[in-house]
UniProtKB/TrEMBL annotation:
Protein name: Glycerophosphodiester phosphodiesterase
Domain GP-PDE: 2-239
An annotated GO BP: lipid metabolic process
Gene3D superfamilies given in the database record: Phosphatidylinositol (PI) phosphodiesterase
PROSITE patterns the UniProt entry points to: GP_PDE
Molecular function terms from GO: phosphoric diester hydrolase activity
Length: 246
């Protein structure tokens, strides 16, 4: 059955990458939660997607140039509808604490956001933070930055690792063959360039971001291993209609 991965929580009903968004996603029992990690000026790990805070808060500037206190002072809940008051950018510690309190037992898809800004040593810091919680749920580490994936593989040889890519290039396939990572997470546009049997025989592929109903239907009908989506409720509904009645 195709895995449903909630992209940045359930960002259509709550501000993305905030605790309310993750709580909303969990209400629909997705197979995975996806989130993103950056590092502040004073070395704190925070859950936010963009390199800048401009789009998702009422502040401005790069995460790397702001202290945790400065980021915590920002409003992360009122930039979109529906607005939620008293919402801030969570730290990775707060997020992992939330999962523990929720008795989370699905899979966490943790994206290391080093594709535009370099955070030397962030890979080991994330692994160390995760180790504090000793989670009993699976974690897959993903990134667009293949060097970050190599570092994670070296630091934690048994880690589950995914390469985020726009296209599946020969280099990507070679690195997977070498064992640098276990899974490939490509742009959904590849669906239009590869026949259904290609997806079915490649159990390591989960495309992003699958929001169109037509794409979602094709994914479920082809039994593609997984999808990363913002449309969590729709995905759950369509999977039940298509795959549970096959």
């Amino acid at each position: 059955m195709t895995e449903i991965i909630a992209h940045r929580g359930y960002r259509l009903v709550a501000p993305e990458n905030t605790l309310p968004a993750f709580e909303a996603a969990l209400a629909f029992h997705p197979d995975m939660l996806e989130m993103d990690v950056h590092r502040t000026l004073d070395g704190k790990l925070v859950v936010i997607h963009d390199e800048k805070v401009d789009r998702t808060t009422n502040g401005t500037g790069y995460v790397k140039d702001l202290t945790l206190a400065e980021i915590k002072a920002l409003d992360a809940g009122s930039y979109k509808e529906p607005k939620i008051s008293n919402v801030t950018v969570p730290t990775l510690f707060e997020f992992l604490t939330f999962l523990k309190e929720q008795q989370f037992n699905q899979t966490l898809l943790l994206e290391v956001k080093t594709d535009h800004v370099t955070y030397p040593g962030i890979e080991s810091e994330i692994l160390d933070m995760v180790e504090i919680f000793k989670p009993n749920y699976p974690i897959i580490y993903q990134s667009f930055n293949l060097e970050s994936l190599k570092i994670i593989r070296k630091l934690k040889p048994d880690a589950e690792i995914a390469a985020l890519v726009f296209w599946v290039t020969p280099k990507v396939l070679w690195l997977k063959f070498r064992g640098v990572f276990d899974y490939i997470h490509p742009d959904i546009r590849i669906l239009n360039r590869k026949p259904a049997f290609f997806w079915r025989k490649n159990a390591h592929i989960r495309p992003w971001t699958v929001d169109k109903e037509s794409d979602m239907r094709r994914v479920f009908e082809a039994n593609i291993p997984g999808i990363i989506t913002n449309q969590v409720a729709l995905a759950v509904k369509m999977r039940k209609e298509i795959q549970e009645h096959e």
